[in-house]
Write a sequence for this structure.
């Protein structure tokens, strides 16, 4: 008997009792569907987080200085000197001076944005772009010009979306001239990267009455240099403060790795749970196959009397089990993909993984073989005359 | 062609420890092209004997040669091959597979012989035609009368053109009219050269068969061939 026939025969057997076949497959269907949905969800989540991190800049290294002992700080000039010494790994550096409790006013409108003092390299370090106008320049920083660049939330909130270039913005009572608008990155929403005002850090220092700068951001030339930059900074700062508690060097790719590790563990746990459901499905197949062998003892006897070899009988039942597994697998895949799309409608990010589909399908076929083997072996060993007499 | 020597088939009675000697020293020689009836009352051991001849069962002791080959030395695969090529079975209860249609039922022995689909179909249709049921090929067993089902099982037995047909009470479940039709058909097969071993408890049927072997309590009590004595 060839494979195609065995397959047709299996389909016929399964069709003969549709409800039972479906119930047999249910375990596999649910198992496969849940593997696909869970992996898709975790994948989507990972992608979303990666994107967030990527936006922040994976090449970003930040330094925060608490400062202890005599040497209270590192000046921007010292930092710039350090950067200039390592052009092969460091692409840029900006001081970060956050001005607290700020109010920005235009005519009678006011809002409370994040006001940050930066230098001209900020936009490269942070991957931000200017939509219209220009960014804070070297001259702005040197001459302590009260110029600013604003995010789109400010434009919409204070200017009703009209072009704000050249307009005057009152920040904590000081007049600033708007010289540029940043490209929107977070849908123009409040309390995001679109709700900020960037000013020269020299001006920000005055505004916040901060004598020293406690935070710097660096960007590495590329991902592979990040660790070098971290190491160089650590060495440089230890040399200055002689105490590693006085500062922190932090980089995004470390955090990214942690996220990856976390989602990896999550995937494993979820797939493990789904795997148990597949196992239960497999036992369901075995159970029904055993019943089926008993029910069809007489049929097996007839087939043997007509010349079926043990192998013929065995392959008939194994193919039937495989077919059950495979059909269940395909149905599970369809259900899984449908459920994943349904999750998209609920505003969840899903990324359907081809790998998960392939693995889920293979596992269902393998379960078919494994759990079909025992009943099939049992059927093939039946003595023809005993099988014929059975009723 | 079929040669049984000192065949015993002994069943152990479950709790009593009594032995049931279903076959109690059978010696039987069937030549090619013979039409033989094994006759006896119910429980005399006829079916047991036929199952051994049909390689469906193995004797407790004794030897069985089929075409000169000692069957007891063969494995399950060789036995399957013999059942497939050398023998055709007709059972009292027809033993058709209910979820297969008639032509698929008749094709079964050819499937296990590994023939191509077209060839199989052609041979199965020829066999169905011989029993006059070619026009019902796509019907299912449950849609037929008992006599028709028995004709299908005969078609299945002869589809692979085996040299021997073994029929265990083929008319047992049929009324006398359809029963005699079936018998006529077996006679026709015999005239065309097939060896036939027929089992029956019905003396009126036995009377129509050239050679009659009577069994009682697992022993052969007579073996008569018509014409030989006269
Ligand atoms: N599987 C079995 N186990 C125990 N006894 C059996 C078995 N098969 C047949 N017998 C016994 O062997 C004897 C002969 O049976 P059988 O060959 O079927 O008789 P017949 O076909 O002539 O009616 C009977 O007494 C029957 O009870
Ligand atoms: Mg009997």
């Amino acid at each position: 008997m060839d494979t195609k026939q065995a397959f047709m025969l299996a389909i016929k057997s399964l069709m003969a009792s549709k409800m039972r076949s479906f119930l047999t497959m249910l375990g596999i269907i649910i198992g496969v569907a849940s593997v696909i949905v869970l992996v898709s969800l975790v994948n989507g989540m990972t992608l979303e987080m990666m994107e967030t991190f990527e936006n922040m800049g994976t090449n970003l290294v930040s330094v925060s200085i608490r400062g202890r002992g005599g040497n209270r700080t590192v000046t921007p000039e010292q930092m710039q000197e350090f950067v200039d010494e390592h052009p092969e790994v460091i692409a840029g550096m900006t001081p970060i001076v956050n001005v607290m409790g700020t109010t920005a006013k235009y005519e009678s409108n006011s809002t409370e944005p994040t006001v940050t003092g930066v230098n001209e390299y900020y936009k490269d370090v942070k991957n931000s772009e200017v939509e219209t106008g220009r960014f804070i320049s070297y001259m702005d920083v040197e001459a302590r010009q009260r110029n600013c660049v604003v995010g789109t939330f400010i434009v919409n909130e204070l200017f009703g979306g009209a072009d704000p270039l050249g307009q005057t913005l009152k920040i904590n009572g000081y007049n600033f001239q708007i010289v540029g608008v940043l490209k929107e990155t977070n849908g123009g929403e409040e309390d995001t990267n679109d709700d900020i005002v960037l000013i020269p850090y020299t001006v920000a220092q005055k505004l916040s009455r901060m004598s020293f700068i406690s935070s710097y951001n660096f960007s590495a030339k590329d991902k592979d240099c990040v660790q070098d930059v971290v190491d160089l900074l650590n060495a440089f700062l230890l040399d200055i403060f002689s105490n590693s508690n006085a500062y922190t060097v932090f980089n995004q790719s470390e955090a990214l790795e942690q996220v990856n590790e976390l989602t990896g563990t999550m995937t494993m746990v979820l797939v493990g749970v789904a795997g148990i459901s597949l196992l239960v499905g497999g036992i369901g197949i075995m159970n029904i196959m055993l019943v089926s062998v008993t029910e069809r003892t007489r049929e097996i006897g007839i087939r043997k009397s007509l010349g079926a070899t043990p192998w013929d009988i065995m392959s008939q039942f194994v193919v039937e089990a495989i077919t059950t597994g495979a059909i269940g697998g395909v149905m599970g895949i369809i259900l899984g993909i449908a459920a994943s799309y349904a999750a998209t409608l609920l505003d969840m990010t899903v990324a359907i993984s081809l790998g998960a589909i392939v693995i889920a399908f293979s596992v269902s076929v393998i379960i078919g073989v494994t759990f079909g083997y025992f009943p099939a072996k049992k059927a093939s060993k039946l003595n023809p005359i005993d099988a014929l007499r059975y009723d | 062609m079929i040669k049984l020597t000192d065949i015993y088939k002994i069943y152990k009675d479950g709790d009593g420890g009594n032995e049931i000697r279903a076959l109690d020293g059978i010696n039987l020689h069937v030549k090619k092209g013979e039409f033989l009836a094994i006759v006896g009352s119910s429980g005399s051991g006829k079916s047991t004997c036929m199952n051994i001849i049909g390689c469906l069962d193995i004797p407790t002791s004794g030897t069985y040669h089929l075409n000169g080959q000692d069957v007891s030395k063969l494995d399950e695969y060789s036995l399957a091959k013999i059942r497939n090529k050398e023998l055709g079975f007709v059972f009292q209860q027809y033993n058709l597979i209910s979820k297969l249609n008639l032509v698929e039922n008749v094709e079964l022995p050819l499937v296990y012989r590994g023939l191509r689909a077209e060839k199989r179909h052609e041979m199965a249709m020829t066999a169905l035609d011989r029993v006059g049921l070619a026009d019902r090929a796509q019907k299912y067993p449950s849609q037929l009368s008992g006599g028709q089902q028995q004709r299908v099982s005969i078609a299945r037995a002869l589809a692979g053109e085996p040299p021997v047909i073994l029929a265990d009470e083929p008319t047992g479940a049929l009324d006398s009219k359809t029963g005699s039709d079936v018998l006529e058909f077996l006679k026709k097969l015999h005239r065309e050269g097939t060896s036939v071993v027929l089992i029956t408890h019905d003396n009126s049927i036995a009377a129509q068969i050239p050679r009659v072997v009577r069994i009682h309590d697992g022993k052969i009590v007579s073996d008569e061939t018509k014409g030989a004595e006269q």
Summary: Residues B 11, 20, 22, 40, 42-48 surround adenosine-5'-diphosphate (ligand 1) (CB under 6 Å).
